Amino acid sequence: MALSDPVSSVSTTLPSVRQLLLVPFRLRTYGVVLYLVLAFPLGIGYFVGTVVGLSLGISLSVFLVGLPILAATIGGVVVVAAGERVMAQRLLGADVPAPSWGLSEASRLRDQVLTVLTNPALWGSLIFVLSKLAVGVAAFTIVVVVLSLGLSLLAAPRYYNMPGTSVGLFLPEPIQRELSLVVPWEQFEVGLSFIVRLTSWEVSTLPGALLLSVLGVFVLLVGMNILTAGGWICARWAELTLSPGNAGE
């Protein structure tokens, strides 16, 4: 059974502030996070297995040895695509029904093979499987940055005063910029100029650590919304490639 509050539901209006604030409290959000985290290791396995299988199968097909390898690789892509449909449905709420392969309409083995090879679902599945690595790298990077940065800031009051620990913003050297605005007026120039200077900031008090904790809440909130948007994109991509005949319905 799929999680409630599907990510795949399309809306033409922007989400309200209340909806954005409630994202961390929805079960669907953590389904999206799980999907994005799993995308990286699965993507590596999919890409390596598919590329190696196709390369060996095509290069050895002149000796007929490659034909079983090609068949096994294509069969593996179909099986992986079926599993990805289930994941997209349950974790993202995507609408990806199983495609019709039309094998019952072909009586001979040769016709069945041609039916499978010319089915858009097979090529869509192959595109999805090969693209899973790129999706996984991007998703894993965003998840790690959001969770590591947000949780470390959130937990600042727990470790800011530990021996040997430095918490804050540290710059190799101060940053100084002069901002000015000059407006010509008759024979004179009227202007305003001020200097902005940024230096390192070390948290050594509880109020400063609590301020970092509040910043961590904000980072997690924004990050969870970004991950949810990524889940929406993944749901759309799954519907487009894994169920091409139903896309746009």
From TrEMBL:
Report the domain of life of the source organism: Archaea
Q: Does the keyword Cell division apply?
A: no
Keywords, A to Z? Kinase, Membrane, Transferase, Transmembrane, Transmembrane helix
Residue ranges spanning the membrane: these are 32-54, 60-82, 133-156, 209-235
Q: Name one GO molecular function term.
A: kinase activity
What Pfam families does the record tag this protein with?
A: Sensor
**Domain Putative sensor intervals:** 35-238
Record's keyword annotation contains Transmembrane helix: yes
Name of protein? Histidine kinase
Organism encoding this protein: Halorubrum distributum
Organism lineage: Archaea, Methanobacteriati, Methanobacteriota, Stenosarchaea group, Halobacteria
